[in-house]
Amino acid sequence: MADAKTDARSDAEKINAFLPKRGAQGPCSACGQNAWTLVGGAGWSVTLPMIDEAGTIPSAPPHVPVYALVCNNCGNLRLHAQRVVDAEEGS
Q1: Confidence class of residue 2 from pLDDT cuts 50, 70 and 90?
Q2: How far, CA to CA in Å, does 21 sit from each of 15, 43, 78, 80?
Q3: Which of 19, 23, 62, 63 is the most buried (most CB within 10 A)?
Q4: Confidence of residue 62 (pLDDT cuts 50, 70, 90)
Q5: d(CA 23, CA 28)
């Protein structure tokens, strides 16, 4: 697997190469438009905090790193696990 800190490809290049290979590109499921923007930029990442079964967020929760795409028309968010996308780099 490629190391994200030393990988020369940008996150946008990685996700743009990954989605067509997996048949995951396409229009927004909410509005039908096909205009996406990757959330974040160089040096930034998006993570989802994991919560416990009581629904509370621990003070130092584990996180799931994701690539987040936002629909430019309606704001719908689409998430792809960073681990899976980055693993494509090594195959």
Answers
A1: very low
A2: 10, 25, 17, 14
A3: 19
A4: confident
A5: 14
